[in-house]
Amino acid sequence: MEKTKIIEVFITALKTTGEDEWRLNYIEENGDSVLTSPEYLYLSTGIADGLLEWLGDYGYYRMGQLDAVKKHLKEFGQLKPIKIYADNRINTGHKRAAALASLGQKTIKAEIVPDDTKL
After folding, report:
1. 61-96 per-position pLDDT tens digit
2. Which DSSP category does 33 fall into?
3. Rounded to an integer, what distance in angstroms lies between the CA atom of residue 61 and that of residue 102?
4. Integer Cα distance of 71 and 53 in angstroms
5. Are strands 6-10 and 90-92 parallel, antiparallel or unpaired?
6. How far is the CA of 67 from the CAs of 2, 43, 71, 103, in angstroms?
7. Boundaries of every domain in the chain
């Protein structure tokens, strides 16, 4: 079995992805940068409008998840790489990328996955 290669990627080079219509429209209107994502907006400013519009009452749960991820990353650092496609689109790790960016981190550990990997 081939060993997975972990790389360091600039967070600003990462592109957010989504599967639902709201998220895809949000990306089209605001850009696909981690720094324009509703997760980053909430973590860096406390403004949750995007999360609540997207997720309704579940948005409050998502805010709790984001706060917990940010707290954990602040205390322990990044323990597990995010997964990205070769073109820097995030497969998994949107919350971690947004949280690390909000903490001022410039790079993130990532593993490149095949393009047909399910989100």
Report:
1. 999 999 999 999 999 999 999 999 999 999 999 999
2. B
3. 19
4. 24
5. unpaired
6. 35, 7, 6, 12
7. 6-112
